[in-house]
Amino acid sequence: MFDSLRFSPLKLNRFSTISLALIIFLIIFFSNGGIVSNHLLRFDTNGNVKDRVRNQLLILQTEATRLRITTEEHYALNNKNPRELDLLLATPYYYSASAFDSRVTRFFDSNKCETRVFMTWFSRVDMFGEREFFTVESLLQTNPKACLVILSRTMDSEKGKDILNPLIGLGFHVRAMSPDFGALLKNTPAENWLVELKTGKREPGKIPLAQNLSNLIRLAALYKYGGVYMDTDFIVLKDISGLKNSIGAQSVDLSGKWTRLNNAFLVFEKKHFLLHKFIEDFGLSFDGNIWGYNGPYLVSRVVNGLVETGEEEHNFTVLPPEAFYPVYWNRVAGFFTRPEGSSGAKWARAQARKLNRSSYAVHLWNSQSRRLEIEEGSIVDSLISSHCILSCKNNASNIEGEIAGHHPIAVTVDSSEIAGTAVKISIGEVIQSGLIEEIYRRRNKLRRNCRDDGENPKRRSNLIRADRRGPFKSIGARGSRSGRPSLREEQKSGEKYEHILYIY
Q1: Any idea where the domains of the chain sit in the sequence?
Q2: What gap in Å lies between CA 445 and CA 463, rounded to an integer?
Q3: 269-321 pLDDT, tens per residue?
Q4: What is the CA 468 to chain-centroid distance, rounded?
Q5: Angle at 184 between CA 313 and CA 124, to 5 degrees
Q6: Which residue from 120, 201, 414, 484 has the highest number of Cβ atoms inside 10 Å of its Cβ?
Q7: What span, in angstroms and rounded, lies between the C-alpha atoms of 166 and 168?
Q8: Nearest CA to 293 among 204, 367, 362, 231?
Q9: Which backbone phi and psi does 266 adopt, to 5 degrees?
Q10: Which residue ranges does UniProt annotate as crossing the membrane (predicted)?
């Protein structure tokens, strides 16, 4: 993560420009033009003093014009970490005043989204790794009609597109968009906070600025567009489209009353009064030196204040910890560890089933778990294997391998249920019709049965394969009686195929 942003409120006003110009003039005047190129100073050293002064003034005028830098450039020159400043001023040069809003609105409206989802990513694009990608996968696997916007300047790039294109190619709606902070915070209680930060009137503090910008921008995005915000360290376990105006408790006391809320997963309608309260508190009481003060502590502080003053409006729900935070941050390591013995394995499977029943998503507390390895047979491994799209371990790549640089996806279905049938359907129809959920349901059921029996699920099923970057083609299990050429043979032939999925 970036270091904290630091700069002093130095202003380039007319007085400072004139003073600098005067200094340059005196240096030039008394140095016989030593610092100016000869082709600019064409005068006789014995000539008229007025001509000499006139020439020097022309040079100074040029220098003054060159020194008229913008406020943003001034900050970049005086800031120790310009990259974090870029993050703050990340309004792309190609954005007009309403470009960001038009882009987001068009994306949501054109795709008939069942659920609007936002994430933020303020790190480098190459740091968006397998775990972050799987968070996106699990969201779309459980909510195939959702539309996801990743607010990120780094992901809104060619490299970012390369990361997301495999999912887009499957018909899922996900885009990375550079946020326009000014547009998102316009007419909100935190608009002035941004102005003060840009002009140096407010110190960002010791906490990385990216962290606090993420805390604020998630609130602003939901306030403007409504929908769901989630961090990039979740495993989504079920449909979240039914949630409305909800925030999750991170911890509760013995009586079941919440003691701490968290802002890692938020669900609100646009213009919701509680979002307004959150943004207002951020702008008024911002403290960049205390971890969590503008995040989890903020939402807890605001909701608790509404309760204490009797101003609470019962138009939101505080969900229990099992909804989003079923494991506490200091115990999450146990979710990554493979249990010992058959009894331990049985316990892990039981815990995974319990989570699938009672939780909407599982927060993996990336700050604590990012260095942990996902051990085979662990709870996290079990959850991933049942909510993956492209990251499945038992996928077609284990049989055919990667072909021509493509990364295949395979879903496993019980051949006894659909053997001998062929279904011709486009990927859009697959997603919209709900067929994809049925395929996943059958695959997971088959995997559980085979796992319990100690058999290899590949021997009891056919594989349906979709190339991530190209058309959907099917391959049977090896030795398939379909009579179709293998995918490798099809690619060698150079033939082109329609975007069709065949199921055998």
Answers
A1: 14-78, 99-324, 329-386, 396-503
A2: 15
A3: 999 999 999 999 999 999 999 999 999 999 999 999 988 877 666 689 999 99
A4: 21
A5: 115
A6: 120
A7: 6
A8: 204
A9: -130, 140
A10: 12-30
